[in-house]
Amino acid sequence: MKMRYIIGSVIVASVVGMLYTLPKEDSTKGTYVKSDLSILNAPSADDARNWLEARYIDQETGERITNEKLALIEQDLRRLPQSKSIAFYSKGPDNIGGRTRAVCVDRLWNDRIWAGGVSGGLFVSYNAADTWGRVTSYINAGASPNISSITQTIDGGLYVATGSQHEGFGGNGLWYSPDLGVNWEKVSGTVNVNEVVSSDVENKVWFTTGNSGLKTWSPDDSSPITVPTGESSCREIRISGDGQVIVVSNAAYKMSVSIDGGNTFEDISSATNPNSSNFDASHVPYGGGQTRLELAISKERNESGGYSVYAVRTDNNLLSMHVSHDSGLNWTKFVGESGPPNEFDIYRNQGYYNTIVSVNPSDPEEIYIGGIDIWRWNQTVDNPPSGGFEKVSQWFVNPTTPIYVHADNHEMQWDANNRLYVGNDGGIGVTEDFAQNWYPANRGYNVTQFYSVAYDKSGAVMGGTQDNGTLYNDHSLNTYQEFIEVGGGDGFETEISHFNPDVYFTCVYNNSIRRTADGGENFSNFSPELPGNYEPAGGTATGIHPFHTEFAMSEYYDLNSEDSIQFSPTQNYSAGDPIKVPSLSSGDTITFIAEADYYFDDTLYYDPSLTVDSTNYVINSVTGEILGIGTDTVTFNVTWDTVKVQDPYQSWFVVFVNINGGEVWGTRNALRLSQEPNWVCIAKGVGGNSFSSKDFAFSRDLEHFYYSGETNGVWRIDGLGSVYTSDTLFNEKVSYDIVAGIATTPTYTTATKISTGGAEGIALNPNNEDDLIMFTGFSGSNKRTANATSATPTFTNLPSVSNPQVACYDGIIDRDDPNIIVVGTSSGVLVSEDGGSNWVSASEGFEGTPVYEVRQSWRSFEEGNGRPGEIYIATFGRGIWASDNYLGLEESSINEESKVDDMVVYPNPTSTECNVMFDLSKNGDVNIGVYNLSGRLMLNERFENKVSGGQNIELNVESLPRGTYIIQMTSGNQKLTKKLLKL
């Protein structure tokens, strides 16, 4: 059934009916249930941009950092050598894309497609977007990964524009490749280029530079040539195939058109007010709150001999759409203003962010409009032009359904066979039959923007993303880098329990947090429970819940824990027997040694000789203890002993609330699924706001909690690890509260402001609660203290990472060597191995991409950690990466008397076979063992009577699950080991 809506004289049709009756994705299970669309009321893309803009503040000026200063920083960072001791490998995703505003179909080969992420760099496909590969030559040439537009001239010259006006970060110019991406050069004098286009008749490009106007360039030009349009600025441009019709708009969205190849331009804009002297109904209005203007030109001339040109005006929502069938000289408005709650809601309050229009190449009277979803308009009446709309995609259905296209559409490009490629916040979508069927095409197109990363003890990773929800990878899917979505919307912070990896936490905006206890099969709400006069979590009216939900969890096996469990044995135990008892924390067990004999009987009959006053009794045949059972004659499952067992599994889960100068709320029951959370306010007045950076760090024993809200220094809360939930005065000891109308402060914990300066992030040495680093933004100074737990810690400025100073967002102090610092910046990852005196780059694969979170798996093997020392990073444009270079494993274990070289394993990584090469020190049998990171022997091969000297042994590892392994060669006293990554 089709639902039709009347807008003036225009019929609007939706192929799938009314929005609120459509199935919504239930990302807790990967299934879909009917529900109201809460995303309709979710924060807009403006919040994401505001958060991103806040990461680009110059601390010297308090304003947004200039493009000139960013260019100097990038130039200085490129002088840094590449790290030889640490490198990162991609965890993926290889099946999910990210925000894309640039797609180009190759003129020379129809199946070769070029695409660029807004912060992930340039990619190419040689099979019509089935699979993608990164163009490393582009980034190696020094080009920015922040791609805004791509075009190709008729000679095959490829042009990539960087620095979209719609994103929070800039670019570094227009880049040109004459040889299909082998070599690159920058077009001189260019910085931020919003759009670049070309015609079908000349080897020249036209590009917009914002306030610098419209320019052209060809390889024969020494520098760009300014094109007079009657306006000093230029934002949008479209050009006809024959190069004669050019439509542009300026920064105020006034339109001009040229019908002579750009030699002259005519202003075809109009005032919006019909009573104004500047109003012209045959022109396109501008102003009236307008924030975007999208343009499109038909591929061929229409029946009247002109090109059909379309203009779509938006603010947050649709203002109007206009069409000209005479190459842009005379215009007709065919639809006016519309937005929520109207069902004809293309943009859903994001019309300044996601809007695109494209003309059907075989029908100049049909267009496709991209907003949240994709709509189609077909002209059915000629004079004046009017017609009907229908929605041809849905963002929230299962991605395997033929009507699915990811939300937030930005780009549309047709190939020679009328295949349409769409760039959106999910990457690339494709239709081959004019929107009858769609499919995502992102295999290998990893431009996903991650805010965060979490990890478990076996190396599984999870992260919150912009526009693509919360994604999880335990390396058990089709490829090593494939992720699944476990949470929708915009995902932010995430946590996975070390003690029980089936328990993890996801979120969306405004402190809406969810918890799963069964590895993502089911989720429940875990948002903080706040006082009645606070707006509930998830609300946006008061601003107390930030766009970027910020939380953290820390766990500790606490041998001083005062929490305990009452355990009643269900079998007989002798003194000295080990007993496993379930912890209050889900999935964990406590092993304790029986201090005496404990007794249990499954069936007992009463002893008539013990009956007194009609009460029957049963007796423990060993101890003689008796138990009354009333008038019953038999009883079952009698536990004669109850034991109080210490529960060492402890944790703190904390979340930021933007009220009273910045509050931090927490609970010790996040992993205790059968207990109420009991949220308490552990810090007040500690800084932070809706878009500031917040960071949390706990000491290993949970005793010291550090908080940075960027706006009010760094704070330390002491004593949290010493107060347990079994304490009847728990709330009084740790919480700020109001009792009988009187504000109270914690009676046990204390708050100390240890630094007045703000920080983007903090790093705490996991083995030394006194060793703390503050990371600061652009032009700031990173600081370190060696006495963070003292009453007045002293901080020392670390040497600058670059000049000017790059923004440092987060980092870690290595668990084994405090001189090793790994920091995520606005332009990749930098590493120091001498305490910050010297720095090297470790950004190969994600050069120039922001890194907002860096974490290390700091626990040891003895603590149950299968990846001790592994480092994980969340890149905002290239997915999640990891490094095992500081993994707590010895690469080589050679007898001191042995004079042989190290062992070589190749290919590494591998999915099937590898060769193990080494020098055998003496004749003998050789044993090759393959161990997983828990020390379990997974594969063992023995080779007899090997002769000393060079050996090359082929090893089949195809049967092994994906993961990291240790290959160990032993022969007599000789032992060699090497890591292997099995794909």
Mean pLDDT: 91
Head-to-tail CA distance between termini: 47 Å
Q: CATH homologous superfamily of the domain at 454-560 and 647-883 - what is it?
A: YVTN repeat-like/Quinoprotein amine dehydrogenase
What is the tally of beta strands?
Answer: 79
Q: Roughly how much helix do the residues carry, as a percent range?
A: under 10%
Proportion of residues in extended strands: 35-45%
Residue ranges: pLDDT <50 for 5 or more in a row?
1-42, 889-901
Morphology: globular
Just give the CATH class of the domain at 454-560 and 647-883.
Mainly Beta
Class inferred from helices and paired strands: mainly beta
Main sheet makeup = 6 strands, mixed
How large, in whole angstroms, is the Cα Rg? Answer: 32 Å
Strand order of the largest sheet: 1-2-31-30-29-28
Helix tally equals: 4
From the coordinates shown, what is the CATH architecture of the domain at 454-560 and 647-883?
7 Propeller
CATH topology of the domain at 454-560 and 647-883: Methylamine Dehydrogenase, Chain H
Commentary on this structure:
This protein is mainly β. Helix content is 3%, strand content 38%. It has four helices and 79 strands. The strands form 23 sheets. It has a six-stranded mixed sheet with strand order 1-2-31-30-29-28, with no helix packed on it. Strands 5-72-71-70 form a four-stranded antiparallel sheet, with no helix packed on it. A four-stranded antiparallel sheet has the order 6-7-8-9. The longest helix has 11 residues, at 67-77. The chain starts with a strand and ends with a strand. The relative contact order is 0.09. The model is unreliable at 1-42 and 889-901 (pLDDT under 50).
